[in-house]
Amino acid sequence: MKIYTRTGDAGTTGVIGGRVDKDDVRVEAYGTVDELKCFVGQSIGFLDKDKFEDLLEDLLEIQHELFDCGSDLALLKQELRPYKVKAEMIDHLEALIDKYDAELPDITKFILPGGSLAASTLHVCRTVCRRAERRVVTLARTQPINEEVRRYLNRLSDLFFTIARVANSRNGLEDVSYARSADVFRRK
């Protein structure tokens, strides 16, 4: 099988159910999800296998789920096949957030992204995830989507925030509060 097909040379690409321009909002949405999937892979490479075995397993599953998100976003008409992203996946993300948050100290102020290399890349995942969510919101204004994808991305960015903090905590680093932040988070 050849990697190149030449079918996109005229500026269009195949989606599930047809062809669209390569700069179509649908392609931008699932392309940003694909970018996120790559940054998750990079983050996996920066996590120590002994300290982060649980997190590595969760991130690998998230990469698979992001593939599902992209697949659902590439679907022109839901009648072509059932959606892959389901509400149970969002419930699972919420359980992961609660699990990882339980090992962290409370915060009351905004924090600066950074600390360990692993935490920094997880913060990049958080911001790319937010961009993907914005692209999906734009897409949903004009075309039907699987609404669970939008919810999934919203919750996933919260998970990335939480696990970036876990990466610092397990590496013995404290979060750095934004110096000019008022108290914005409620205590548990």
TrEMBL record:
<dbReference type="InterPro" id="IPR016030">
    <property type="entry name" value="CblAdoTrfase-like"/>
</dbReference>
<dbReference type="GO" id="GO:0008817">
    <property type="term" value="F:corrinoid adenosyltransferase activity"/>
</dbReference>
<keyword id="KW-0547">Nucleotide-binding</keyword>
<feature type="domain" description="Cobalamin adenosyltransferase-like">
    <location>
        <begin position="3"/>
        <end position="167"/>
    </location>
</feature>
<keyword id="KW-0169">Cobalamin biosynthesis</keyword>
<dbReference type="Pfam" id="PF01923">
    <property type="entry name" value="Cob_adeno_trans"/>
</dbReference>
<keyword id="KW-0067">ATP-binding</keyword>
<comment type="pathway">
    <text>Cofactor biosynthesis; adenosylcobalamin biosynthesis; adenosylcobalamin from cob(II)yrinate a,c-diamide: step 2/7.</text>
</comment>
<protein>
    <recommendedName>
        <fullName>Corrinoid adenosyltransferase</fullName>
        <ecNumber>2.5.1.17</ecNumber>
    </recommendedName>
</protein>
<comment type="similarity">
    <text>Belongs to the Cob(I)alamin adenosyltransferase family.</text>
</comment>
<dbReference type="InterPro" id="IPR036451">
    <property type="entry name" value="CblAdoTrfase-like_sf"/>
</dbReference>
<keyword id="KW-0808">Transferase</keyword>
<dbReference type="InterPro" id="IPR029499">
    <property type="entry name" value="PduO-typ"/>
</dbReference>
